[in-house]
Sequence to fold (450 residues):
Amino acid sequence: MAKIPSFFSLKHLLVLSLALNVSLIMRVVFEDERQGPLFGFSLIKPRGSSMADTEASQRTLLATSSSSSISSSAKTSIAEVEDSGEKLVNLDHGDPTMYENYWEKIGEKTTIVIRGWDSMSYFSDLKSICWFLEPEFAKQVVRLHKIVGNAETQGRHVVVGTGSSQLYLAALFALSPKESTQPIHVVSAAPYYSSYPSMTDYQKSGLHKWAGDANNFTEMGPYIELITSPNNPDGFVRHSCVNKTGGAMIYDLAYYWPQYTPISSPADNDLSLFTVSKSTGHAGIRIGWALVKDPEVARRMTKFVELNTIGVSKDSQIRAAKILEVVADSCEQSGSSDFEQSFFEFSYHLMEKRWQQLRETVSKSGGIFSLPQFSPAFCHFHSKVLQPHPAFAWLRCKDGIEDCESFLKGHKILTRGGRHFGASSSYVRVSMLDRDDTYKMFLKRLSSIR
Ligand SMILES: Cc1ncc(COP(=O)(O)O)c(C=O)c1O
Fold:
């Protein structure tokens, strides 16, 4: 029998055996997920699914990270995962990694230094309704909206949130009647962003309740309508569709930026939501902002964030401010030695190229797939008539393929099926925002389907 070295005590052996057992159990769990829900939503009901845009990514991350650690600096790819030796192209979620190239080229311009004694207080600006709003962040938000022309900021209060997701919940809290015995109905026209139903209902709040497709909404009394424009998943410009009095509107304008859609006029709403996740691609910073007309609504939204997270990371706000500043500089100095092209020129051309390639591939599919057609419109930012290039492709499988998500999964392409958006399962949503290699692989797989 092999002799155990003297520095190994019984305690060491016990710890070693425990570690081996834990790693074996983890492996079994991950292997099970690979067989089951990891690569699809077969076990996730559309209405009950929680935080749908990130859930699949988390599970994929778990699976891919079982043998290597996840570091924030590493370019963790959740777009490709192994399945019996072959890589799956994962375009189920809208992770905006395609912007990495631009930011890498920009280099040190966005680097900031945060010292040990910075950002220590809870408070940022006691003069603002949103007392945790960093003034520099607010300044750059207003500056960029002015340059892009996509939102009216005059007479608006800026409320910052941990992503626009937190601000959506804050808006629900602020707009729900305080004294009512019944939760207010929350509606959005289908196909709607797949996270809205679960975000609205996951806490079983007595204040608000998801009531589904706004097109079929017939209830009496107050309601909240969510308008996502351009829309996730189908990319169309949206307006309110409930034709009743007593409604409050939340405009989710995450994609109202010049790389996705022509900027027709500054949004002039009571409550609009924006996020760096989709405008600049910095989803990991977790910063969003609301432009709110009514000070009382801004106050209640601020209260929600205070009760929820006692403010929003100052470090993240400072970083977001720097990124917005560089985007604004790139627009003002486009063509200079500092900025060959503006961020929006770069991203517009990339989206244009991707959509062109996708339309070509789809047109050669012999009618298996089809895509929405968009009307061109004048873009006040680019000063010309342009086609929309949405962040997602709302792809339809031909009649006879009832479940497009499963069909594509069979060809090693992961997408999100129509039912998650309150629509038919003959549709899927495909992210257009992933890295070049993943997107190329997607086109290759799609073109091989006959
Ligand atoms: C329409 C829409 N709103 C909000 C969000 C969430 O944004 P954030 O990352 O700022 O929470 C997303 C993310 O996919 C989205 O598509």
